[in-house]
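Throughout our pipeline, every protein is held as a single compact record rather than as scattered files. The record that follows is passed on verbatim for readers who wish to inspect the format:
___
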Amino acid sequence: MHEPAMPSAAVAAVMAPIAAAAALLPLDRVHFVAVDGVDGAGKSVFAGGLGVALAAAGRATVRVSLDGFHNPATTRHARGRYDPDGFYEDSFDYARLDEVLLSPLRAGGSRRIRRAAYDVDTETPIDAPLERVPLGAVLVVDGLFSHRPQLTGQWDLSVWIDVPFEVTFARMAIRDGRPSDPYHAANTRSLLGQQRYLLECTPAGQATWVVDNADPSRPRLLADRSG
């Protein structure tokens, strides 16, 4: 499933300072860049564009989505199928993410990684191949909750894709067939879980850059804290 794509000219306009800063990161180690946003904000599209821009600048880039590191359904729904705290606390396997992706890429690590560990669509583990990442590469990770405490200290740079819930749930109604009203009972778990994240972690305040993507044809750079 793909989030709404932004036109290439609009992407380039907001991508330029972000890609430039990431491309200038020192070559002495692998650097981590996160693209965060609520579900349906456009994270994967933006992260993909950033990866392309970095590759065009001659920088080795590794693209990964946190969607490949979900917990099994038994863990995700252990607090109850519709529990918002379960959505926030139990969606992702951060220990596995660290084990097979982040830890190997830190200074002194093997730089041998696996890009995914679990397929949430089929509810099956993934035996992803081991890959060797070159020194100086940039890891670009997109994913919900990327600025929560388990991950905030990992990123050299980060982006928050800012989109209101009224817009994202309308997008997901088309993408996933779920109700478009954020306050529909079927959306309570994800809405309240994400609202808890916004309240407790204030990701827009933590991110290096904030991008308004409410209108995919006119994304705007709202904040640049790279200086």
Residues 1-7 have pLDDT under 50 and may be disordered. The chain has eight helices and ten strands.
